[in-house]
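Exercise 7b. Backbone tokens:
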């Protein structure tokens, strides 16, 4: 059965255990007052920086920095809060001068970063709220140092923003200019490739296809015309060959008449025919074949061998016929030597011919009658006249033969020239047809190169346009017409510290001290198992007491209690005065402490 405490029970417990309430309360409350009094003040100086929108519309000039404001501020914060900057600022403004001992550079950087604050100011409360400003603050025990350091950090933020934006704009412009230069070089390289390819395939360019087709048609027409001319000249050549053969056949008929030698018989004068019919027949056949065939023809060679064999046979038989054949051979040889220009040999041959003719004449005149001799002289005169006529006709016929041969030569040369021209035309036609066949391949290759050139040109135009935009954006950044940081509220000298809140600390110390005293009483009562009062006895024994006898305090106990209370009060007073004396002597005069404490709380 649980015991229910009455108000009188609580009063009784409080009277009995009041020291357990008083001691913790006094100690803890005094400690809280001491802590609130002795904690150094901490001042905060804050500057407000507005993120001002660009003065020139983005539709007119696009900015070179498109990152979010919060992200950009964080980047700037990392660049400002570098080890070098923080140590420089700390040393320049003596942030930790006069502190406890000499701090290492790592501790200085750590404390500087923990004392610096960057907070964002948004336009709304949602997730998509836009950052329109941010605050930069610095905390320090000295308001002057806090204001100076905060101003320096704000200046670093402002300068770093300008430097960063200008650097980004400059780097963007430089990068785009470099890319544009690379693309320009690439364009020049492609142009060079196209020019070289066109130069290498100048005869197969697609734009000249119609011209080459026209050239092919004209060349084919020229070939046909040349063929017609060749056929015409070949017909003329055949006619001239026939004419030449006829002339040469007529020329063969101008052989000298047979030498008729007179001799006297018993009844009349008869003549001897020195010509051999068989030899004359072979020579006539040879001349006819020579007009038909080439010099290397087998029939001509065969007839020439037969004539030589027959002449050798006649010469071997001797007589006037042999002498006449020998004279004919020497005359042919003399003619050949004359053509060769060998005058010495011609002279020798002429002498031999004259000797043979003289011997032949003497042999013919032996025993000839004078009348026969006169007839012979008349016949010789007539023969001389006939011979002159024959020579004239023969010369005229030779002239005609030479003219025909000259025409044949000219015709042959013309045919050869036409054949060369036709071959040149065929070679040209072959080249033109080859270039026409190569035109689709060249066209495809040129299309590929032109497509590459157009793509590179398009990229170059895009990059060049972006480079111009970047240059304008850089000019805008340099003129401070783009998005910028504006110091709306510079850091000022703080009037009051932001912490500690001394009044709040004293109030919290009072509440905690009182709670500690009550907790002490409750703990002691929980540990102590004594029975207090009739109600507790009844709940424990389950029996109502017959009578309640109150505690009777004797005079001795009363005096003892009073003396104890007096000693405790006296000890407390002595302890307070001793503490005040120690503070006055060893720490600070009490009047200064009083004013300082009042200044701390006010």
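Sequence design result:
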């Amino acid at each position: 059965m649980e015991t229910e405490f009455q108000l009188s029970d609580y009063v009784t417990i409080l009277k009995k255990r009041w020291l357990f309430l008083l001691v913790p309360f006094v100690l803890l409350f005094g400690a809280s007052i001491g802590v609130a009094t002795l904690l150094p003040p901490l001042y905060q100086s804050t500057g407000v920086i507005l993120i001002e929108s660009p003065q020139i519309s983005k539709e007119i000039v696009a900015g070179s920095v498109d990152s979010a404001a919060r992200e950009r501020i964080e980047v700037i914060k990392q660049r400002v809060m570098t080890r070098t900057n923080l140590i420089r600022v700390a040393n320049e403004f003596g942030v930790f001068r006069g502190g406890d001992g000499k701090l290492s550079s790592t501790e200085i950087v750590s404390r500087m970063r923990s004392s610096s604050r960057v907070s964002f100011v948004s336009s709304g409360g949602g997730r998509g709220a836009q950052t329109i400003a941010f605050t930069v603050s610095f905390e320090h025990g000295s308001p002057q140092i806090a204001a100076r350091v905060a101003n320096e950090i704000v200046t670093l933020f402002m300068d770093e923003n300008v430097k960063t934006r200008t650097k980004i704009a400059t780097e963007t412009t430089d990068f785009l200019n470099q890319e544009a230069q690379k693309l320009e070089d690439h364009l020049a390289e492609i142009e060079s490739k196209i020019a070289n390819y066109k130069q290498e395939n100048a005869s197969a360019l697609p734009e000249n296809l119609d011209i080459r087709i026209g050239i092919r048609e004209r060349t084919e027409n020229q070939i046909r015309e040349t063929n017609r001319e060749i056929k015409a000249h070949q017909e003329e050549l055949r006619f001239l060959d026939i004419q030449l053969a006829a002339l040469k056949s007529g020329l063969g008929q101008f052989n000298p008449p047979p030498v008729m030698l007179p001799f006297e018989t018993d009844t009349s004068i008869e003549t001897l025919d020195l010509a051999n019919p068989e030899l004359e027949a072979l020579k006539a056949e040879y001349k006819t074949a020579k007009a038909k065939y080439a010099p290397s023809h087998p029939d001509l060679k065969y007839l020439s061998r037969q004539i030589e064999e027959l002449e050798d046979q006649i010469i071997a038989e001797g007589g006037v016929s042999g002498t006449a054949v020998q004279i004919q051979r020497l005359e042919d040889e003399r003619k050949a030597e004359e053509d060769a220009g060998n005058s010495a040999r011609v002279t020798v041959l002429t002498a031999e011919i004259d000797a043979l003719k003289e011997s032949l004449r003497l042999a013919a005149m032996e025993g000839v009658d004078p009348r026969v001799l006169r007839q012979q002289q008349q016949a010789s005169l007539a023969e001389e006249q006939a011979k002159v006529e024959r020579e004239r006709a023969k010369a005229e016929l030779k002239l005609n033969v030479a003219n025909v041969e000259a025409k044949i030569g000219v015709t042959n040369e013309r045919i050869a020239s036409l054949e060369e021209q036709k071959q040149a035309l065929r070679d040209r036609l072959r080249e033109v047809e080859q270039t026409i066949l190569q035109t689709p391949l060249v066209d495809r290759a040129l299309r590929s190169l032109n497509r590459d050139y157009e793509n590179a040109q398009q990229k170059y135009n895009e990059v060049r346009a972006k480079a111009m935009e970047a240059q304008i954006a850089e000019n805008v950044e340099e003129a401070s017409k783009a998005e910028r940081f504006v110091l709306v509220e510079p850091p000022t000298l703080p009037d009051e510290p932001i912490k500690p809140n001394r009044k709040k600390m004293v109030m919290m110390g009072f509440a905690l001290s009182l709670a500690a005293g009550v907790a002490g009483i409750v703990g002691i009562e929980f540990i102590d198992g004594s029975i207090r009062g009739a109600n507790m006895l009844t709940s424990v024994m389950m029996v109502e007491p017959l009578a309640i006898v109150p505690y009777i305090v004797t005079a001795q106990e009363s005096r003892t209690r009073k003396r104890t209370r007096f000693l405790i009060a006296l000890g407390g007073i002595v302890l307070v005065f001793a503490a005040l004396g120690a503070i006055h002597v060893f720490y600070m005069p009490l009047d200064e402490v009083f004013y300082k404490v009042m200044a701390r709380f006010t």
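Instructor comment: The longest strand covers residues 43-52. The two ends are 55 Å apart (CA to CA).
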